[in-house]
Predict the structure.
Amino acid sequence: MRKLVLSGVTLCLAAQLSTAQIKLPSPSPGATIMQTVGTTDLTVKYSRPSLKGRTPFTGDFVPVGKVWRTGANQATAFTTSTDLMVNGKTLPAGTYAIMSIPNQDAFTLIFNKNLSVTEQTYKQDEDVLRVDLTPSMGTEKTESFTIDFSDVTDSTANMNFKWNEAKATAKLGVDVNKNSAANVDKAVADKPEDAAVLQAAANYNLSKGRNLDQALTWIDKSIAQKETYRNLFVKSQILGKQGKYAEALPIAQKALTVGQAANDASFSFFKDGIEKSIAEYTSKMPAPAGKKGKKKA
């Protein structure tokens, strides 16, 4: 009877330990890396196995020529907030499991829609995108499997997969202008009466030479909500961009007057630009009729 009682206690303790929320060290600790490229947010969540004296992609320790979860524990998750180009191929916005097929001279990178996929449950017909990468061998040894981003610009980045002395790189690209324009349009749709949002939207269109008539409508609404030297200056620039110098000049002059009267330390950063615009618009105005040169006899 005593033996039975002890066995029951042991089973209870084991059950408690298996369900208790105890944080213990993992041989392949988790990591999350985030990177913004332009207006696109990228996130990778994965686990990092270490070499510990072993050589990866040998068959005994991580497969070679077979599907691998590209990390350890659960599937590696990759999220892109907008459509993304991976080595020139389109990956729609969303979250995917990253799988791969590592070989000595090739590395197939796979984005799979099954977020709980494993090597055993993987199905190729659930792939959203496959791209082939060319691995390279370096002199620097990476002990723990690493995914990171490098060479980041406002529209491109490299996503690197590094382990031991091997490195494979996927080239990422985003349409930053398309994404920014969509964000501008959404912001105005969400806050159509917000003077600051309207000014920012108009200024974006101005900077890109995009739909200047729409920009003028937005900046007029901003000025109607609250007139400032900033939105007046933006309006003068839009009119100037449209070649309407006679309309742009008095608006720029008013922006200068309003700014000089404002108790705004930031005006000093705008003053020179406003004055240059006034000079530019003045120089492009047609000369008064009475000041035209006389014809020679």
In short: The helical segments are 2-19, 176-190, 195-208, 212-225, 229-241, 245-261, 267-283. The chain has a mean pLDDT of 90.
